[in-house]
Amino acid sequence: MKFGLKYIASVIAISGSLFAYAAHAELAPTKLETPSQVIASQVVSFKQDAQLIRDTYEPQLYTLPAFKMGHYGLRMYRQTLDPKYQSAIWADMARVASKLNTVAYEMNTPEQIATYSQKRLDEYVGDKDERSQRRYAATKKMPEYIYLGVGLLGSMARANEYGLQHKEDLKLREIIRRYDFKKYATDTEMIHAWAAQLANQVYWLRQLGEQDVVDDFIVAFKQAYPDSLDSTLTDQQYMNKIYGMTHIIFAASEYYQHPIKESDFQWIYDYYRKNVDTILKRSKEDVLAEVGINFLLAGQDDDPVVLAMRKAIQSSINKEKGMVPSVDGDFGLVHGEHRNVLAIMLLDWQQPHVAPTVNNQPKIFSSVPYGLVAKGNLN
User: Fold this and answer.
1) How far does the signal peptide extend, from start to end residue (predicted)?
2) Which residues constitute the domain of residue 224?
3) 87 shares its domain with 29
4) Is residue 103 pLDDT above 80, yes or no?
5) CA 229, CA 42: separation in Å to the nearest integer?
6) Is the model's pTM score more than 0.85?
7) Which 3-state string (H, E, C) describes 300-319?
């Protein structure tokens, strides 16, 4: 991690944000440390707390479901290139292969897609939380989105990142081409329900060389969430907005593989800096960590927002349990995996790596699950 004059000069500037977070978290504000103390002690303590969370998760990593195991292992591998995460990556490949096999061979007709999507959508019926109600209301008019966006695209994009594709890649692409994704990506209600997911999906489509609706989505996103109306948003909707912004950055980096040029997303970084107090007050730890990581992807390690987010996350760690609990005080490893792997990355950031890929890490792909082949190796 690099610390320049900008970092030292900016420490005092974040004091208001840190005190705001302390008040929000019902913590007694403490005296802000001097720049030398921050450099000498805080960085060490951030890394120590990241290791504390690792020590909680990694002995039990292979007890987690495949999706969670892969989520953790892939992110840690892209940070460290440590081969100890290879088995988790293979489990993720197996999950991807299973999903694409199902789509290719068992569930691809319009009737099958409609039945599957409606069944998944019906799972939201009866849920009382705002997010679920918004997702049901928005998606019931276009239920196929559940199949296309939430299922198929993510698996195809992950295989693509590995340097793989499904044996029936052309068939899968034909399914995508039946639908105009712009309809989902520019619908205000859909953005209010699925902002982060849509951000991922429009970039996945671009990555796959299919429909490119990234710019359309960003225009629609700004219209759905004008900054002037922030004060009218519920906390759930405010977090949905910030989640959407963080995932635009993540998806553009192909999930921690490529650095980001801040000027390409200046409107997002300017918003974070201007509204850091509000973000700290109104957001869960997952969101706070993602905001900080957005800056790290842009090489802005010494931006005051990063330190503010790190201190906020650090203060939320339960040292006895060795993890960041949920806002409700839950310490479940499965449900907490997302926020805790983000906390590790924020507190002990390494650097982006384009990995793992068939070409760069061939040992990981010496045996791939059925259905997946190296890109370009279709029969």
Assistant:
1) 1-22
2) 66-242+360-379
3) no
4) yes
5) 36
6) yes
7) CCCCHHHHHHHHHHHHHCEC
